[in-house]
Amino acid sequence: MRHVHFVAIGGTGMGSLAGLLKARGLHVTGSDTGLYPPMSTLLEQWEISVDEGFRAEHVLAGPPDLVVIGNAVHPDNPEARAAIDEGLRYLSFPDALYELAITGRHSVVVSGTHGKTTTTCLVSALLHATGRDPSLLVGGHSLDFDGSFREGQGVYFVVEGDEYDTAFFDKTPKFLHYRPRTLIVTSVEFDHADIYRDLDHVKSAFRSCVEQLPADGVVVAAVDHPNVLDVIRGAPCPVVGYGASSDSVAEWQARDLRADESGTSFDIVRGGATVAQTLLPEFGRINVENALGALATVTHLGVPVEESARALADYRGVKRRQEVRGEARGITVVDDFAHHPTAVSGSIEALKARFPGRRLVALFEPRTNTSRRKVFQRDYAEAFDAADRVVISIVPDGPIYSATGEVTERFSAAELVADLCARKLDAVAAEGIDAIVADVVEHSAEGDVVLAMSNGAFDNVWERLLSALRA
């Protein structure tokens, strides 16, 4: 195989696999619409040719040996149709990833509603720092590896396992295709309302992943969460539990959390005994729990806990996960990927621990197919409790993709603002990036921390805000 073409190459997984194959020396091409950083920048950096828009000739002129079709591609996509109708070999992204990169290795799959990207990067960083030379593919930019993929010579392939469906021709969850031998379950909550009917439907996907594990595999699970306990019951292999809550009864626990300017120190407790102390250069209980899950995982994979505990202090993190974008007029601007209410609450709590005593302004863009529905309307009202001021972006009306039925009730920024104000929070809604930036500039002061949360580009609000503050 010499030439691989990616239809909808701009997704984090698709782009990362394209980069990995390019690094192997293959000829890689792709197409997409509306590319934005960081993937657009990375594809250019990797010298991967990307066509704007989808046209049949992209796959028919000098046909590739393999066409990889992303899950954002619809059945009427001209490139997908041309590949299928002309008999070209094609695979979904998860099947291509397994066939071309994971097969023959020990598959370590990190799953969960929250924390997948961070935990995937943590496991990979700890394995690498302790000499295990892992391979990696993750839906984010790891600062430890300066990218979203890595091809090592070791036995372990660490991959972020998403519960979203695979392709228009395969509606099974992506993580099933990676055939995990070690499976991490960080959390299970309702999400992806565009393809899942309810929480039970989500749980059924995770149960399917647990049930396919081999007898000599292992599930490393955040057992403080009741929904996680539900999906791991009856696992066909051993289960290793971890938890960072104050009343956790898990085998692995994080105790005596202590935050300072360098991060969060905590005791690692296993089976009731303190086995090590460590420093995580991150903040918030949600990040401590992710780190604990990674420590438990690499210990199971043969790394002495004393080694991984020392290595954790050098962990560098992930872009767009509580990433400081800059400071202007004494105001610190932070970027985060949070969009689910639990993640929003966890990110705000982490920033309050990182910048104690400072006023926190939370900006939020409800952009996903789930957050644009009314499903989390009430949950968002509670998610911002620890913020000092909240600015909600008014997203223009438009079609919301749904495989579960017509979307009849939409998220209301005005209703959320009313609920936040009723909870004694200073909150406003603003339409358009210029209005958001103007509001923050007018109402912020030296010492404030501005946290912008979105799973998309958010119209580059971070740079625009910093430029406006400097002006």
Question: Largest sheet, order of strands side by side?
Answer: 8-7-9-6-12-13-14-15-16-17
Specify Rg, calculated over alpha carbons: 22 Å
Query: Main sheet?
Result: 10 strands, mixed
CATH class of the largest domain: Alpha Beta
CATH architecture of the largest domain: 3-Layer(aba) Sandwich
Fold-level CATH name of the largest domain: UDP-N-acetylmuramoyl-L-alanine:D-glutamate ligase
Number of domains in the coordinates? 3
Folded structure, characterized:
- There is one protein chain.
- A ten-stranded mixed sheet has the order 8-7-9-6-12-13-14-15-16-17, sandwiched between helices. Strands 18-19-23-20-21-22 form a six-stranded mixed sheet, with helices on both faces.
- The mean pLDDT is about 95.
- It folds into three domains: about 90 residues, Rossmann fold; about 210 residues, Mur-like, catalytic domain (UDP-N-acetylmuramoyl-L-alanine:D-glutamate ligase), CATH 3.40.1190; about 150 residues, Protein-Tyrosine Phosphatase, Chain A (Alpha-Beta Complex).
- It is of the alpha/beta class.
- The chain is about 30% helix and about 25% strand.
- The longest helix is centred in the middle third of the chain and has 16 residues.
- Helix 12 packs across helix 13.
- The protein contains 15 helices and 23 strands.
